[in-house]
Amino acid sequence: MRQWWTRFRAWMKGRPGIAEDLAEEMRSNLEIETESNIERGMSSEQARAAARRHFGNSTLVAERARDAWGFPSLESFLNDIRYGFRAMRRAPAFSVVVILTFALGVGVNTAIFSVVHAVLLKPLPYPDAERLVRFREANAKTSFSVSWGNFKYWREGNHTFEEMAAYQFTDRTLTGRGEPEVTRGLMVTAPYFALLGMRPVLGRLFDQADDRPGTPATIVLNHRFWASQLGGDPHIVGVILTLNGAPYEVTGVAAPLWEPWRVDYYLPLGRAGGNTVNRGQHGSISALGRLKRGVALAAARSDLDAIMRHLAEVDPGPENEHRSSGVFFAEYSTGDMRGTLLVLMGSAVLILLIACANVASLLLARNTARAGELAVRKAIGAGRLRLVRQLLTENVVIAAVGGAAGVAFAYWGLRLLIGAAPTDIPRLAGTTVDLPVLLFAGGITLAAGLLAGLAPVMVAGKIDLTTALKEGARMAGGSKPRQALRNLLVIAEVALTFVLAFGSGLLLRSLIAAQRSSPGFDPQRVLAFSLQLPSKAYGSPEAISGFYTRLLTDLRRLPGVVDANSVSCPPGAGDCGDWFYSIPGRPVPAQNEVPIALFDSADAGYFRMMRIPIRQGREFNESDGAAGPKVAIVNETLARAWWPNESAVGHQIKVGGPYQEGGLLEVVGVAGDVRQFGLDSQPSADICRPSSQMNDSNRTILIRAAGDPARLMTAVRSRVLALDRNLPLQQFGALEESLGAGLARRRFSTLLLTLFAGLAVMLAAIGIYGLLSYWVTSRESEIALRLALGASPSTILRWTSFHALRLALVGVAFGVAGGWAAARTLEDLVFGIPPRNPATMIAAALAVMAIALAATVVPAWRAARVDAARRLHYT
Amino acid sequence: MEFLQGTLEVLILRSLQAEPNHAYGIGQFLEQQSGNEFVVDNGSLYPALQRLLQRRWLTAQWKMSPNARRARYYRLTPLGRKQLVEESSKWQRFVVAMSRVLSPEG
């Protein structure tokens, strides 16, 4: 250690001192030896010469002695870097191509990685975020909300959590501050703030004392909501806000903090729900907890499961079979982007590999051209290892320049990427090229430089001195192992390109399939908006149905309106609520196997207006009134599941299943399936009941227009406000647009993967072109000979193309194997076709082969035009 | 005869036991004492001297030689002296052990 330090100090102080001392010492010792030689009777010339001879190679002695003081490997490394830059300047065209190739590979990877890092890898901005978990109840089939009762037992009885909070979303209408506005609140128990490390910027956050029944109503504002909607009012603390007609006193404003959801304010959940004692009473509560240090997720799950089992014994009920289900909060909040991003990252890595293969082939060609130079270096005493190190360093230097360009490229490309990305990807907006991303870029640059340099260097290490010195580049390049290596590189490039082309082909076809897939209804020229009738003003079923009947009558009278109907859940809008059901007369399902369906309600004219076909029975009509028999229309998926070979009409459905309360419904009709979870989803079981028997206060109004629905918007809004000027219209717009927006993520990932495939094809084409040109160059003599012996240029053309075609075919064969394996990772993203779709595979193969052949055109043509006489004359 | 790995350094230390000397003198001393069995290569001697300086077993000083020539003299430090004692006993044991093994029994 100390020795290193003295060396380092000497190195830092600079060599001159040591070098001068050493030179003088050597000179003086030479003099001393000369003198002693003279004393022994030699002439002064003789004495000097003998002393010199005896002393040896003084340069070498000095160098080796100096090395004792320095870091010889570091210095030769720096030398190699200097060589690298010199070599780069000597072959500018070659360098530019290699640098651009590296820049492309590293740039794409850096850009994608920075997204992966920001969205998936970066820890959430909470204290000990890696121990935050989200828990809900679950049975064997699915997970659902935790009831307040069970949550309380979890919080008090667990041994694995440091702290636990409950949260639940709530939509409320804010009035008394300009236009009425629907706002989204998060009802939380007090520990929520501590779990996320949230602090107030004004006033205080609520605590346990505010979070129990009977306390005055308080509200904590989200920073964004306070700043944008309430004008950042510095005197907001103490102000009363009216939500759904009830007063809430502002206690504070929370400091800005990223959350996986967008909420406007926080309300105490314990104050609203604290009196619930029934364990079976579910709202839509989830639990957020921080695990104790060292506790695994599975351990926490079995801890809560034990509580649930114990409760099933002491307080039996419909909840008996319920257990817990938990995920890490980080995983939950990044959600379903994981698969897409990992596929994109994988594709980016494939691009980098193709870039490496390209560079490797270029280097191979260049090092062959440099065989003479390398042989000379070896002849004057450079060791093989030294030579290999020098070549590798050169490659890394050029890779580093390319990598730096790649980072710049990524920095610029990232803006485009974020701009093109759907806005609902969590944390995407925070993507930057930061330190971890730069480290990643540095790492892959180094790896790529070494990888690309490996093959050529391995060959260079084996340079046969005599051949290389005597025959020069041309002969050295034609040797068998080198040619095999080059062929291997072409095969690898073709294979990798095929995998990317195949993957992007699958996604493209899925996108087309999704865009063409029928949603199950006709969304054209349909205007939609949602209303929430506050319970204060609309307390009775009569008030609710009265309002909607009047509104719909008014709307239908508007000029340009074909029809208008209300539903509880607009088609294609996702999950608006599901519940248990069972079929009387069928075997009673076990408690944790009770089937679940989407439950919604619609007006009588809804199916006809949306052009959802009625397959069996009838649609709702006037006889399905509040006093009439309770009826339902099920969708085909549900009907097929229970009555595959008979009509569903006339059968009964028990709401809530055998273990929950609920009435009986008679199936009066079967409607066509609707893709409720988006165009690229599969239909799920659905039970629809007439609005007149449900009287939902929250509904979506659908209006079919004769012309452009956008032109109706002003008139529609004024009709609503004429009935109730405190009622905000939510999600007001054309249904078609919101459906199409559901495909934004699919469009994004397809766009990126297609872009990648395009890059891959371009790189591969350049690579194949380069390799084949080289192949032709190194075979010019052979070609000349063949021509001289009577082969026609077209024979040569065929021969050359056939060589390329053979390599491409082998590459595609490997690619098909790779694609077959890779298809599994794409399974979740593929829609409408099987992931191992042979047609797509054939199309990708043909495309890649065509590119490969196109890349061979110029070299093959050159081969056919070799001037036999001249060529043979020169050799 | 080539030097065995690590032997040159202890031999240099030994050559300076009696008095300071310059590089040429050290080489001469080793060749003569070994009965001209050892050939001291300057390409090994100079780096070895530098290493010993680094370890602070030697110090170097420019002085006048007996025939009035400026020369760089090396001198043992106390640390170097200690090292010499340790190393010589180690080598002596090594030599005894070697000859025991190599010489015929009896």
Provide a short characterization of the protein structure.
The complex is a heterodimer of chains A (875) and B (106). Chain A is of the alpha+beta class and 875 residues long. Chain A is built from 30 helices and 22 strands.
Task: Characterise this structure.
- The complex is a heterodimer of chains A (875) and B (106).
- Chain A is α+β, with helices and mostly antiparallel strands.
- Chain A has four domains: 2-70, no CATH class; 141-320, no CATH class; 339-516 and 744-874, no CATH class; 526-741, no CATH class.
- In chain A, the strands form three sheets. In chain A, strands 3-4-9-6-8-7 form a six-stranded mixed barrel. In chain A, strands 14-15-20-17-19-18 form a six-stranded mixed beta barrel.
- The model of chain A is unreliable at 472-478 (pLDDT under 50).
- Chain B has one domain (7-102): Winged helix-like DNA-binding domain superfamily/Winged helix DNA-binding domain (Arc Repressor Mutant, subunit A).
- Chain B has helices spanning 7-15, 23-33, 42-54, 78-102, and strands spanning 58-64, 70-76.
- In chain B, strands 1-2 form a two-stranded antiparallel ribbon.
- In chain B, strand 1 and strand 2 form a beta hairpin.
- Chain B is globular and about 55 Å long.
- The mean pLDDT of chain B is 86.
- The chains are: A alpha+beta (875), B alpha+beta (106).
- The interface between A and B is medium-sized, with 27 and 20 residues.
How would you sum up the major sheet of chain A? 6 strands, mixed, barrel
> What is the distance, rounded to the nearest whole angstrom, between the alpha carbons of the first and last residues of chain B?
29 Å
Total domain units of chain B: 1
Portion in helices of chain A: 40-55%
Instruction: Specify the structural class of chain B.
Output: alpha+beta
What ranges of chain A have pLDDT less than 50 throughout 5 or more consecutive residues? 472-478
Q: Give the SSE order of chain B as H and E letters.
A: HHHEEH
